[in-house]
Amino acid sequence: MARDYFSFETIRGKEGEVVCYHVTMIGTIENEGDIRIRNDMGENQDKTRVFGILTLRGVDRKIRVLLNETNSRIHYHTQDDEGNATDAISFVARDWRADEIYEYSAGDRVLIEGRAYLRHNTKIEDAKDELTVTVTGQFLLGRKKRPQSPFRNFLPQE
After folding, report:
1. What is the model's pTM?
2. 108 with 74: CB under 8 angstroms?
3. Residues 86-110 pLDDT 10s
4. What whole-number distance in Å separates Cα of residue 36 and Cα of residue 151?
5. Secondary structure of residue 31 in the 3-state scheme
6. Which own/partner pairs from 49-52 qualify as long-range (CB within 8 Å, at least 24 positions apart)?
7. What is the CA radius of gyration of the chain?
């Protein structure tokens, strides 16, 4: 079984203030993380953005450190009876990266890196901001082998 990965680096300015967080994560695109594309973004509604969710298993402690530091949350976090954690982190890509990421599908193993930013939830006032990653680099690590029907080579009878 493939291992998921999550790490972050705090980028600080000259006075020691936090400028941004750089995140690297390896996980799986799952059904609820299907990639969505919008072509009407930007000032002139002519920019492309792709939105998705990456699922990571077993790296919740590292993720919690960043969430505690930023006082934020992720898309979702679950834990089964055996203590195995599953985390889903939202990401957004633009320009040529959006075109490449839009080709990903459920079951694909990917590496995504980028800057973390906090998105405010306007629907729920007291909710914590959601940590989302703006993609600066991405790489397809592997595709889930699609099951093939034993009847794929049969020809229909006339």
Report:
1. 0.80
2. no
3. 899 999 998 888 888 888 888 889 9
4. 32
5. helix
6. 49/92, 49/93, 49/94, 49/98, 50/92, 50/93, 50/94, 50/97, 50/98, 50/101, 50/102, 51/90, 51/91, 51/92, 52/90, 52/91, 52/92, 52/93, 52/101, 52/104
7. 18
